[in-house]
């Protein structure tokens, strides 16, 4: 029987179909309704506190790698929220400009220290400066990275060591030096990492090693804080491709995935830190989905990633 558009959409199967549907629905309802209730109850009781910009007002914050990119944008957001800022990177002239802009935007105070994080003594010096200039610390945002190459691994072991010092050991050194102040304030450590710190991507071998190391160190430390009732939160930020100048220059021709905006990325990191979240994913849906694939279909994820690379453009580099 053809569909007439009137009363009998399933023709002679209507009555049995409806009966099966109804009994199916009956059974489903018995399961679905309590299940939905459980989900709702769980959601209601675990509903997180909402982010409010006032959470950062008057807070004393260090941002590393704040002369450009995501770090610079984080400094501007924090300034608008009324924080006390201590920013750092190597390039003095850029830091001066960022400090001036932060003051215009409403920072409670803004200062800078310049130097290289290749040297752990400098990392410790920055924390000491916070103690002297701000009298304490509420949030330590670890964001800087040393420069690397976006290409096949060239076998340079010295470069891997140097990058581990800049991208990993300096994070460890700053954390160790800042612990007394963070314990006193019940503060937060925010660690900026990457999808390349959770999954293997081509052309980021040394960089990826440093980002995986951060996950190991800070996830383990978080467990010890819980055992010892240490009231310091650790937020690990898992970022995808972001449109900072340096990332665009290095990877835009080769990576076919569109980059996400650095301004919004910076805000999501600050929100996650203020809410004391364990991890931040930006952008959320693509990263959560990729991590699900990583755990259940790793070869498929690896294949899908390789498909997003344009190797012809790599050769032109
Ligand atoms: N952009 C992206 O696609 C992604 C970025 N991320 C992460 O986000 C964070 C920020 O990245 P992004 O904003 O793109 O990077 P940028 O290259 O824009 O900024 C890097 C910052 O680190 C500073 N820096 C570089 N070398 C050193 C050094 N030896 N000592 C101290 N500071 C140094 C730079 O300033 P100066 O040169 O003046 O020292 C700059 O302020 C990083 O942790 C990165 O891993 C994660 C995933 C993707
Ligand atoms: C959901 C995911 C499958 C999305 C894939 C995202 C891929 C394309 C993202 C994830 C991590 C990103 C790299 C990164 O973390 C940091 C840098 C440093 C920068 O200076 C040069 C660019 C580089 C190498 C990014 C290149 C793009 C990467 C591989």
Automatic annotation (TrEMBL):
Record field: catalytic activity: 3beta,7alpha-dihydroxyandrost-5-en-17-one + NADP(+) = 3beta-hydroxy-5-androstene-7,17-dione + NADPH + H(+); an 11beta-hydroxysteroid + NADP(+) = an 11-oxosteroid + NADPH + H(+); 3beta-hydroxy-5-androstene-7,17-dione + NADPH + H(+) = 3beta,7beta-dihydroxyandrost-5-en-17-one + NADP(+); a 7beta-hydroxysteroid + NADP(+) = a 7-oxosteroid + NADPH + H(+)
Annotated protein name in UniProt: 11-beta-hydroxysteroid dehydrogenase 1
Subcellular location: Endoplasmic reticulum membrane
A Gene Ontology cellular-component term: endoplasmic reticulum membrane
Family statement: Belongs to the short-chain dehydrogenases/reductases (SDR) family.
Encoding gene per record: HSD11B1
Pfam families documented for this protein: adh_short
Xref: SUPFAM superfamilies: NAD(P)-binding Rossmann-fold domains
Organism from which the protein derives: Alligator mississippiensis (American alligator)
């Amino acid at each position: 029987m053809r569909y007439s558009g009137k009363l009998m959409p399933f023709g002679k199967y209507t009555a049995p179909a409806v009966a099966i549907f109804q009994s199916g629905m009956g059974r489903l309802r018995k399961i679905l309704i309590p299940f939905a209730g459980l989900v709702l109850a769980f959601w209601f009781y675990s509903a997180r506190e909402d982010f409010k910009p006032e959470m950062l007002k008057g807070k004393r914050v260090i941002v590393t790698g704040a002369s450009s990119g995501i770090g610079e944008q984080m400094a501007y957001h924090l300034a608008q929220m009324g924080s006390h800022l201590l920013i750092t990177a190597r390039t003095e002239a850029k830091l001066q400009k960022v400090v001036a802009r932060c003051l215009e935007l409403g920072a409670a105070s803004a200062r800078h220290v310049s130097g290289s994080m290749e040297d752990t003594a400098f990392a410790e010096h920055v924390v000491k400066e916070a103690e002297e200039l701000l009298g304490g610390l509420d949030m330590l945002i670890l964001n800087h990275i040393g420069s690397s190459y976006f290409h096949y691994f060239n076998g340079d072991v010295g470069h891997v060591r140097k990058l581990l010092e800049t991208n990993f050991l300096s994070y460890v050194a700053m954390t160790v030096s800042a612990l007394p102040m963070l314990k006193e304030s019940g503060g937060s450590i925010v660690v900026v990492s990457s999808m390349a710190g959770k999954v293997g991507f081509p052309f980021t071998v040394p960089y990826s090693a440093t980002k995986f190391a951060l996950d190991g160190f800070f996830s383990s430390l978080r467990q010890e804080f819980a055992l010892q009732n240490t009231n310091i939160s650790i937020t690990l930020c898992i970022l995808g491709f972001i449109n900072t100048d340096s990332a665009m220059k290095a990877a835009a021709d080769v990576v076919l995935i569109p980059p996400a905006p650095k301004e919004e990325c910076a805000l999501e990191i600050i929100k996650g830190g203020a809410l004391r979240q364990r991890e931040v994913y930006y952008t959320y849906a693509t990263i959560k989905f990729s991590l699900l694939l990583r755990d259940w279909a790793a070869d498929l994820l690896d294949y899908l990633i390789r498909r997003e690379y344009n190797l012809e453009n790599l050769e032109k580099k």
